[in-house]
Amino acid sequence: MSALGDGHLVLIIEDNDKNLKLVRDILQFHGFRTAESTDAEAGLRLAHELRPDLVLMDIALPGMDGVTALRELRSQPSTETIPVVALTASAMQADRERLLGAGFDGYLVKPIDIKAFPGQVLAYCRKARR
Ligand code: MN
How far is the CA of 14 from the centre of ligand 1 (A)? Predict the structure, then answer.
């Protein structure tokens, strides 16, 4: 078992069970701690409670979408410094630019690159805002 993740806590907000399980299993295998939610509303509550090192945010969610949830996180002093990375199924450049313009710290395209993913996540964990 690799300790690459060094115990960093990653909050995964993703409504697709298969994607959620894949991301969680890869991160746990590589020594990250994880928390998870299948909707933005519960995810926001967890973010306030746990103050994770990173939030991985699906965009299309039931109820509140990922862009709105990002704005909520950024509007609260307790969560505004947490890096938030979009998990997006879209490979289109315009959509990626829209996400960065909305204030995400980055994006990871689904399906995720299983080999590269743990290192990408670790880099974002170390990128606490300001
Ligand atoms: Mn979704």
Answer: 6
